[in-house]
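Data availability (excerpt). All sequences and predicted token strings are deposited with the supplementary files. A representative entry, TIGR02234 family membrane protein, is shown inline so that the format can be inspected without opening the archive.
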Amino acid sequence: MVGVTAAAVPQPRAEHEPSAPVARGRRSSLAIALLAGALGAALVLLATSRKWAEGTASVAQGSLSQSANGDDITGLPGALAVVGLAALVAVFAVRRLGRGVVAALLALCGAGIVISSALGASDKAALEEKASKVSGLTHSPIHDVAYTPWPWVAAVGGVLLLLAGVLALGYGRHWPAMSGRYERAGTAGAPARSRARRGAAASDPDRPEELWKALDRGEDPTEAPARQEAERGA
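Structure token line:
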């Protein structure tokens, strides 16, 4: 007898399923993006509410200390942090091309925060404006200007948002969608509900349109109900 060796039949689904390391990498990218985005936005909003610069303004009575918060120097990092946080949430509410657009917006918000924070780290225009209001002069000088590390904290937050955007661009197409389960349930249930409504409408012989249709076909619309009553009586 000739031995027959059973050959393994390839499974088509297995070819499309990611390997365990790939699946772990996708889950890790999702977790890192969420953590980096949320932490980055929180750092930016915290940093912009703190003092970025301080100095001394010359007035008639002598000198007066002045300080400026991050929002006084530039409102761009805080606004971009809010937009970036909204984009981070929106990544899971859209799919395909929309997800790529939102991910790019998230990355751009992070890059904008880094640039604007770095520029604001040495900006004394807000201090000069405050000094002008105190002294009453159009261009009041400001002396002994000192800067705090908070602008660079905001820049770090921008880097984290940029990282979240880059991860969303690279791995976002594999992440789950927030509304996917509800869309599938609604799509699957709609045809069934439609068929049920059509079946209920078609099974009611007492509807006026059904009586007219029966008369057009030359049928007696009262025959079927009478036959049903006779069968129930029997």
